[in-house]
Every structure is written in C-alpha cells, then in structure tokens.
Amino acid sequence: MFRHLFLLGIFLLPLHSNANPINQPVTNQKQQLNQPKNTMTQYSCEYCGTKSSSISSLTAAACPRHPNGPLKGKHKLYEGSQKASYSCKYCGTSSSSLSSLTAAACPRHPSGPLKGKHAPAL
Ligand SMILES: [Zn+2]
Ligand SMILES: [Zn+2]
C-alpha cells in the first residue's frame, strides 16, 4: 500500500514540474499584450489639454489657448506624467483634466491676476 503511493508520487512529480514551462509563455503573452497599451500613450498640450497620439502631430497644430493669444502659436507638449488630477503650478487649483484646468484664468498668474490660464505642474 505505502509502496504503491510512493510510486504514484514519483510518477506525479514530473508532471507538476512540467506544468511551469507551460505557464511561463502565457505570462509572456500577457506582457506582450500590455505593450500596445503603452504605445497608445497620448501626448497632451500644456496650454489647452488637447491630446494627440504623437508629439509631431500635437505640435503641428495651432493652440487656441496659447499664452501669446488664441492660435498665435502651436500646442506645447505637456512633459509631466498623466495624473488622476492636475494641479496649477501658480495657485494649486486642481482639476481632473488638463483641458478643464487650463480653461480657467489663474488668480496668481505671473503676468497678473487672471491675465492667463492655470498652468499644470509637471
Ligand atoms: Zn494647446
Ligand atoms: Zn492657477
């Protein structure tokens, strides 16, 4: 009886050790599936929050909230990380998106109170 279980254990052990190499390619595939999500990173304009799939297409278009005036310059790449909420570097006002943050005038703008929009901290 005991000898029979012992033989069964020897027979089953190699099966368990073989299960790991089968699982490893699965985890590798999951990592590869995550990569396309990273390449879908969107680039945002620091002035208006406009999003673009590439920096070149973002900075090719005129920005309606450019500090020199509407459409007086191109979008500027926001170099900070994407966050759940963005804070103004002048006054600390926070907003859930760059576009809503930069839509409002900033009471502590360096050009004067309400002379410019909120600017996101990086
Ligand atoms: Zn812009
Ligand atoms: Zn502000």
Describe this structure as you would to a colleague:
- With 122 residues, the protein is mainly alpha-helical.
- It has helices at 2-39, 55-58, 98-101, and strands spanning 43-44, 51-52, 86-87, 94-95.
- A hairpin with a 6-residue loop joins strand 3 and strand 4 (94-95).
- The longest helix is centred in the first third of the chain and has 38 residues, at 2-39.
- It binds zinc ion (2 copies).
Question: What does this entry show, briefly?
Answer:
The protein is mainly α and 122 residues long. The chain has helices at residues 2-39, 55-58, 98-101, and strands at 43-44, 51-52, 86-87, 94-95. One zinc ion (ZN) is lined by residues 45, 47-48, 50, 63, 65, 75.
Question: Main traits of this protein?
Answer:
122 residues; mainly alpha; two-stranded antiparallel ribbon; binds zinc ion
